[in-house]
Write a structure and sequence with these properties.
Strand content: under 5%
Helix content: over 70%
Largest sheet: none
Oligomer: single chain
Structural class: mainly alpha
Low-confidence stretches: none
Number of strands: 0
Shape: elongated
């Protein structure tokens, strides 16, 4: 369990660092496009790249956000339950979310493989789609891994470690 938790945390730190780099790249690309649009001609494919970079950034931030409890949750009803019931519901929620995001990652990866096999490319810049699709699948798989570690933590609360 400790190894799995450490692996998940390390993987998420790597992904969020890459995501931060992608965000900086998006900022520079936007600024350069605005500047060049006013002086000369805009950068071709900026809209296309921003969409793909945004998808990668969002996917890579999913696990990090879950670790830090940054996702929106509505717990008005759950707050009225006993601590044991809340813990049980949290475990059930972690299980459902883990299965859901595992399936999402699997299906997105299959879609990426289809794009790879068919040789799909973007319309403007003519770059391949599948690396971006695989990146989104990786982000969803990492989120699923975080839900797995939280599920295991709910079964073994004495072995809980600091994040």
């Amino acid at each position: 369990m400790a190894f799995l938790n450490k692996f998940a945390l390390t993987l998420n730190r790597i992904l969020i660092a890459i995501g931060c780099g992608v965000l900086v790249l998006m900022i520079f690309l936007t600024c350069a496009n605005i500047f060049l649009r006013t002086v000369w001609v805009p950068i071709q494919g900026t809209y296309e790249l921003m969409g793909y970079f945004g998808a990668v950034l969002t996917a890579f931030a999913l696990g990090y956000t879950q670790i830090h409890r940054g996702h929106i949750s509505v717990d008005l009803l759950v707050l009225g339950f006993s601590p044991k019931t809340r813990k049980t519901l949290e475990g059930i929620n972690n299980l459902i979310c883990m299965v859901f995001f595992s399936l999402v990652a699997w299906r997105i990866a299959l879609y990426g493989t289809t794009l790879w096999n068919t040789g799909e490319i973007t319309e403007t810049l003519r770059i391949v789609y599948y690396p971006f699709v695989y990146a989104v699948a990786l982000g969803c798989a990492t989120l699923s891994l975080i839900f797995l570690t939280e599920l295991l933590r709910s079964f073994f609360p004495a072995k809980e470690e600091n994040r």
